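Reply to dn_fold:

You asked what the input looked like. This is it:
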Amino acid sequence: MKLEIYHQILAMMHTYGSRDCLKTIALQFPGVTYNTLVSIYSQDYQKKTRKNHHKHHKPDVMENYYERYLAGVAQDSGEPVLLRIAEEVDLSHSLLARIVLERHLSHTSFEGQNPPRGVVSQMMKDPLSLVQDKTLANEVHQCILNDPNYGPLMDNIKRSVGYEYELILRERLQNRGIPFLGEDDLRSRGYDKTPDCKLEIPIAVDGLVVNWIESKASFGDEYSHQTYLKDQFWSYWNRFGPGMVIYWFGFIDELDCNRERGIILKDDFPADIITLESLLETP
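and this is what came back:
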């Protein structure tokens, strides 16, 4: 995807302002898959959330959200209170639920002190069982179920999708008879930073050598790609030499600029790879 098209899609998302716009945008860009649009929207939402994090996590603001929750519950209207507040303050449902849960625990169980993050995280994963206040437990549960961008449910979905595409990559390699080592194999050999697949025999893609392959079940935008380069890809290159990254939901074309330095970007497993075996069979 050209950078210009990416910016056009983002501009439309910002104009509509909600996830409901994706089907409309898909009609405007028939060459872009719906899964790609979902990934772009999710990444942009996360950027906005990071940018506004400090605004929602000031002590007085957090306390205000908790007081609004208590006032809403006291009215006993039967409507989900936290969902309404999250929409009003333009905050992820799950993040608001976490803030209110933290304040509740601070007031009821930790003598005004902030509860440990691990305690809150564990409760967010199973509020119906672990949160003693059943009204709050149900409110938090509703927020998690109705949050399409954040929270334990979305984390599980993203992990599942990521694992699914790792299996697809392994299947493609096995079907081509390309031997490889997985992450567990590499860790057992003492490597701390490991790609999804380290090829035991290099292949050639677009005339360039590939020693490892990383699977990303997401869209490759500039922020995520630069972060991955810094935290993962260059580390793989230092340990194993040149490699390939597959962004299964596409990427900004202009980011594929490190080929000569040893990192290739693709949006699928290449069909036209060259293996050592095929070279040996060539008369």
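The chain has a mean pLDDT of 93.
Hope that clears it up.
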